[in-house]
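Bench notes, afternoon.
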Amino acid sequence: MKNTTKKASVAVAAGVLCLGASILHARAQQAYSGSRFQDVWAQVVSDPYSSLPHESVSVHKFFSWMRNKLMDSAFRTVSEQSDVLPRFDKLVHPNGICLRGYWNITEPSGYTGYFEQGRRGVIIARASVALSETERGNYRGFGLAGKIFPTDNPSNPARLKTANFFAIDDLGGTRAAHFMDGELTNEPAASFHPSIGIYLAGVGAASAAAFRAADVNPGRRQVYPIAELGLADKTQAVTPRWMMIRGADGPRFDQADFRDELLTALDHGPIVLDILVTEDRYQGWYKLGDIEFEAAVVSDSCDHRLHFAHPRWRSDLP
């Protein structure tokens, strides 16, 4: 009888989780008509913090009664296309800073869309750290989520569909002194550090289970949305396999918190990050262009309203 009751409880819990994911998926199927750049950025800057928050990441925050919030989040990221959502929590990357600027492709390549030479688009991005640590001296997993609009005019009145990308240097974190020193890719490393092993193992196991349930291969986020952006016929898209974002040569600023580092950098001029691609990570990277950020904000909407859609895995790509 006890085993039967236990199985029934597990089945009910699983059913509730699936129902929650189904509701999220159904909501996401509503037609996405795009956004205006100025509207999204206006929301992001509407509620700046008076001081930097330090949200912690822990397994107990992933779950509530009869609900797997991390699973819901994983399904939302691959199903929901909207650029701004009602307030929600970023469970793995809670501490971030949003930036505004331009995506510039200056070098020739065989790729299409906004990987093609001459392409210039406006971009809103969120720099963050995986897990809880934001200050230098700790293990920090630097990440950058980007949202490219297919226009070089920030005041363009049209609603435009965006292409989103995700790049992280190391899911387990490194002790790199500066965000600008990170080599962020769409297939990040996942180092294990004994000093935070128990904590990291629990968070990692829960995250991996949720992300695998939501998509086939969450370890590499393909960048085909950028190669398709601006194309009338998306079947003609040619996309790189790997992309890297890293700080361009230039000064670094020794602030303890990565958000203060980036804000201080902007006080001295635009922040420039190089865009590199490759078909073979062991044969070197090719620089295509750069991202030039000209403004930044640390705000509640940056951390709780701005949404980046993860591209679903496609097996027809290399």
